[in-house]
């Protein structure tokens, strides 16, 4: 005979393979804190509403607190036969305080209980991730300020395009991270919704007070429809999609760190503490952390697609398929948290090779656009100027020279409009600082970005 909490209508015990297959305790033990917190609020409300007595509430809450302690101290024995965290805790409560423990589940179903736990869990993590992200942004802004005079080539098609400030490059990531933070905050009102009181799907016959539970657990909103409350996983999908965007940004950054720290670029050197070696090649210092951030981005995308796919065919309301919402979400918060936590000190401690970067902008044609712009200021239409510069560059390549190596006579062979000031105009610092339009790479424009980013961060 079945000893399950739901065993009443069963005549056989569950096949052990079924138990193993359907149990979620192997991962939803992570919801223990939230489950207990939710149960304490629920019991408090039941007593306030006269559904249980205050003495019963006291017993239940004391029991729950003891269970919390047992779990924290590793004394709690999780059982697969009890399926999930909710049943494990309830069973233990009844063991500890007797049949009165069975009153806790009055006016509640595991369907709204698990929904509540997931909301509480995500609220906790979104807060934590927001703090991490804000810290990362601060670190980047500081690095940008410290390296305000460093110039390196900016790329398109991974071909040198125009020189830029290193701080401008960092501030591009700050812009992305600020959007990420904004997105997290926007999603808050949908995470901050309280589902308890939905019962299994249709509400409850008991005179509950959902507002009290919401207040006790610090929720701003309450689900308006009980069927939606137990079926909704939109907020998790939304979180996974925001997490995917964040990982995508971190992955692009990782890719750049990997390239920049290669022998080919040598733009930065990652600190020893953030690299690993090779078991066979003694000379190696590998950017494993950046590579793993790039690599782990895939699994976060996977969790998003996986949950969307799980949900797409589900009829209302709860279906066991929805148990699959957990592992992906747990893994995502962990993966993202780890990436954010490591990225900050890795970038803070990396050495910026100013000389190597400077050499790269001198030994290339990334000032060619500025030469064309120069000709435009002399009254030559841009298309014509483009042609003149293109021919000059071709000449330089044949002569193994750069634009700044040309004599004024050589310039004149292509255009008689060129004057001596061209040598000044084509210097990397000049080229960078000429781009002083709003959002441009000139030092003054980057300072504006830094100030605006600081303000934005404060306001978020
Ligand atoms: N472990 C379940 C889950 O995570 C809890 C809800 C179970 N509800 C039910 N009606 N079987 O989805």
TrEMBL record:
According to UniProt, this protein's pathway is: Amino-acid biosynthesis; L-arginine biosynthesis; L-arginine from L-ornithine and carbamoyl phosphate: step 3/3
E.C. code:
4.3.2.1
> Where is the chain membrane-spanning?
none
An example Gene Ontology molecular-function term: argininosuccinate lyase activity
Domain annotation Fumarate lyase N-terminal: ranges? 8-302
Which superkingdom, per the lineage?
Bacteria
Q: Where is the Argininosuccinate lyase C-terminal domain?
A: 365-433
In terms of CDD domains, this protein maps to: Argininosuccinate_lyase
Q: State the GO CC annotations.
A: cytosol
Q: Which reaction does it catalyse?
A: 2-(N(omega)-L-arginino)succinate = fumarate + L-arginine
Record's keyword terms, sorted:
Amino-acid biosynthesis, Arginine biosynthesis, Cytoplasm, Lyase
Q: Which InterPro entries match?
A: Arg_succ_lyase_C, Argininosuccinate_lyase, Fumarase/histidase_N, Fumarate_lyase_CS, Fumarate_lyase_fam, Fumarate_lyase_N, L-Aspartase-like
Q: What class of enzyme is it?
A: lyase
Family as reported in the entry's similarity comment: Belongs to the lyase 1 family. Argininosuccinate lyase subfamily.
The name this protein carries in UniProt is: Argininosuccinate lyase
Point out the gene that encodes the protein. argH
């Amino acid at each position: 005979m079945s000893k399950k909490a739901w065993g009443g209508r069963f005549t056989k015990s569950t096949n052990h393979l079924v138990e193993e297959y359907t149990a979620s305790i192997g991962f939803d033990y992570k919801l223990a804190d939230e489950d207990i917190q939710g149960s304490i609020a629920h019991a408090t409300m039941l007593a306030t509403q006269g559904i249980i007595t205050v003495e019963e509430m006291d017993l239940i809450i004391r029991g729950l607190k003891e269970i919390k302690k047992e779990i924290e101290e590793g004394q709690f024995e999780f059982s697969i036969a009890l399926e999930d965290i909710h049943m494990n805790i309830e069973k233990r409560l009844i063991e500890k305080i007797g049949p009165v423990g069975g009153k806790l589940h009055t006016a509640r179903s595991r369907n709204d209980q698990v929904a509540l736990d997931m909301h509480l869990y995500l609220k906790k993590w979104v807060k934590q991730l927001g703090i991490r992200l804000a810290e990362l942004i601060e670190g980047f802004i500081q690095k940008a300020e410290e390296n305000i005079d460093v110039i390196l080539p900016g790329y398109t098609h991974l071909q040198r395009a125009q020189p830029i400030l290193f701080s401008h490059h960092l501030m591009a990531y700050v812009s992305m991270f600020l959007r990420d933070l904004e997105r997290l905050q926007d999603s808050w009102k949908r995470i901050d919704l309280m589902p308890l009181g939905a019962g299994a799907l249709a509400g409850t016959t008991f005179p509950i007070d959902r507002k009290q539970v919401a207040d006790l657990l610090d929720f701003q909103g309450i689900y308006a429809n009980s069927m939606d409350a137990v079926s909704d996983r939109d907020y998790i999908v939304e979180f996974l999609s925001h997490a995917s965007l964040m990982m995508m940004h971190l992955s692009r950054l990782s890719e750049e760190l990997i390239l920049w720290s290669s022998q080919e670029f040598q733009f930065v050197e990652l600190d020893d503490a953030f690299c690993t070696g090779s078991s066979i090649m003694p000379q190696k210092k590998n950017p494993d952390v950046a590579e793993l951030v790039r690599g782990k981005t895939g699994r976060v995308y996977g969790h998003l697609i996986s949950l969307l796919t799980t949900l797409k065919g589900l009829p209302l309301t709860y279906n066991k398929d929805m148990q699959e919402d957990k592992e992906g979400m747990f893994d995502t918060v962990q993966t993202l948290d780890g990436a954010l936590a490591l990225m900050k000190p890795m970038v803070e401690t990396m050495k910026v090779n100013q000389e190597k970067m400077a050499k790269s902008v001198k030994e290339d044609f990334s000032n060619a656009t500025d030469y064309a712009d120069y000709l435009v200021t002399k009254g030559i239409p841009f298309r014509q100027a483009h042609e003149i510069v293109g021919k000059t560059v071709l000449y330089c390549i044949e002569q193994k020279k750069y634009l700044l190596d040309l004599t004024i006579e050589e310039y004149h062979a292509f255009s008689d409009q060129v004057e001596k000031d061209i040598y000044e105009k084509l210097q990397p610092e000049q080229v960078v600082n000429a781009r002083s339009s709003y959002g441009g790479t000139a030092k003054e424009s980057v300072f504006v970005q830094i100030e605006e980013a600081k303000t934005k961060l404060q306001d978020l």
